[in-house]
Design brief:
By secondary structure, the chain is α/β, with parallel strands linked by helices. It has a single domain, classed as Rossmann fold (3-Layer(aba) Sandwich). The chain is 36% helix and 17% strand. It is built from 9 helices and 8 strands. A 6-stranded parallel beta sheet has the order 2-1-3-4-7-8, sandwiched between helices. A two-stranded antiparallel sheet has the order 5-6. Helix 1 packs across helix 9 and helix 2 crosses helix 3. The radius of gyration is 16 Å and the shape is globular. The protein starts with 5 loop residues before the first strand and ends with a helix.
Amino acid sequence: MTDKPTVVLVHGFWGGAAHWSKVIVELNKRGFTSLHAVENPLTSLADDADRTRTMVRQIEGPVVLVGHSYGGAVITEAGDLPNVAALVYVAAFAPDAGESPGQITQEKPPAAFENIAPDSDGYLWVKQDKFHESFCQDLPADEALVMAVTQKAPLGSTFADTVTAPAWRAKPTWFQISTADRMIHPDNQRRMAQRMNPRATVELDTSHASLASQPTPVTDLITAAATDLTG
């Protein structure tokens, strides 16, 4: 029986649960045996929060809920469950009540904002030929190509979905800021981190895909949250 909490990983826009692959391997090496990664539909914040809550409710004991990118909005909305003991934000949105990811983005547009394009069905994509420079400029070209081709597009309307009661106002938080992020402006990340008063804030000189390009320091932050809970 491990004394470590369960870690639940929540992906963001333009990716799936497999974006966490390197962090999963690193957590496992550190003795985290209860690991889960949500596969969100990216159809609405309500749908994605429900999917995340469904997974968390199946878990006995404390949960460290980790969100990357838009996954930060999801854990903000879904993190009110009683067994969620900590929230970790990885280059993520952390909206307050009544805020949406789209609103935050418009306040300070990121460098790659123009490389996002809608299709005829209302889904938003990062242009394949711009994915590497936009999302993960510090990853090898082959890894970026796989991410670009397998990207999971959200419904455009999801950008406007607002958070109701932000869990970060009631739960301890940790925040990783990507200083070379071209998908969520680094200053937006700093502002969101500052107002939640996290127990630790880590700035990494990395792209939006810090979970893939810097999995060790990202895992360090998750481990710090788990250690804080368990002593």
